[in-house]
Amino acid sequence: GVAFMDGQYLPMSEAKISVLDWGFLHSDATYDTVHVWNGRFFRLDLHLDRFFGGVERLRMKLPYDRKKIESILAACVALSGHKSAYVEMICTRGSSPAFSRDPRQAENRFMAFAIPFGSVANKEQLERGLHVAISETVRIPPTSVDPAIKNYHWLDLVKGLFDAYDVGAETALILDTNGHIAEGPGFNVFVVKDGSLRTPAFGVLPGITRQTVFDLCAEIGLSATAAGISRAELKGADEVFITSTAGGIMPVTRIDDTAIANGHVGSITRRLTDLYWQRHDDPAWS
Ligand code: PMP
């Protein structure tokens, strides 16, 4: 992979930050990950909107404008030589001089990198569907003021992952403060019941892939809403799938010890997955 840092393009192994950067010390940073598929960005504008929104709400200032950032991201991909890649953009608070506690004194830093695309789920998992465990861990929104700020804080999600591995599951879903389903390590979740889709509304990152599912549903006339999902509703769903930039739409066929419906990947999940990948060839969606 190739990284961009301090005005230079570097091999990934040379891209390093100071331990005094508040991004590292306090998780005082925001980031976004977009992917490139066969040489084309997928929904880059939505990712940039979310990134710039987070930067603004954290009262940071980017050293570059949007056009320049777009060209940096494209250059990272081009220099990496990968036709399909994950591209991450990051803005951190930077370090404050003389250990000051005043974030206004720090010089904010922008960096980016492109690494090869490698879906988080393998083919076999996508065919049979994932086994997910519900962890009792409560998702603390990355910033209690605004979960829409995409942030590296993952202590709750990592705890959820260990809970899931302890019971032999492949990944985890954790809860919101009402005890409803929130999200998992790097993904949102959807249930399908009687032909309608639902995804948690509160305390979750507004995922771009989640938005893409809403957009696809609108196109093909499926109802999709954002509203609370209880543990029982999750387990009693006709279909369950999770969504992320890293993995696209991934089917879930088992929650804890319960098989979802007949334990096979559902037809609506398949249809949306097909549409999702078809859109990658559509310039209107780049
Ligand atoms: N929730 C969390 C906590 C995430 O970190 C991510 C992706 N990084 C998502 C959901 C999915 O968001 P997107 O579809 O934009 O990748």
Automatic annotation (TrEMBL):
A UniProt-annotated Pfam family: Aminotran_4
One GO term (biological process): amino acid biosynthetic process
E.C. designation(s): 2.6.1.42
Domain of life: Bacteria
InterPro entries with a match to the protein in the record: Aminotrans_IV, Aminotransferase-like, BCAT-like_C, BCAT-like_N, Class-IV_PLP-Dep_Aminotrnsfr
Cofactor(s) listed in the protein's UniProt record: pyridoxal 5'-phosphate
Reaction it catalyzes: L-isoleucine + 2-oxoglutarate = (S)-3-methyl-2-oxopentanoate + L-glutamate; L-valine + 2-oxoglutarate = 3-methyl-2-oxobutanoate + L-glutamate; L-leucine + 2-oxoglutarate = 4-methyl-2-oxopentanoate + L-glutamate
UniProt family annotation: Belongs to the class-IV pyridoxal-phosphate-dependent aminotransferase family.
PANTHER family documented for this protein: AMINO-ACID AMINOTRANSFERASE (PTHR42743), AMINODEOXYCHORISMATE LYASE (PTHR42743:SF11)
Protein role: Acts on leucine, isoleucine and valine.
Protein's name in the database: Probable branched-chain-amino-acid aminotransferase
Species per Swiss-Prot/TrEMBL record: Mesorhizobium temperatum
Organism classification: Bacteria, Pseudomonadati, Pseudomonadota, Alphaproteobacteria, Hyphomicrobiales
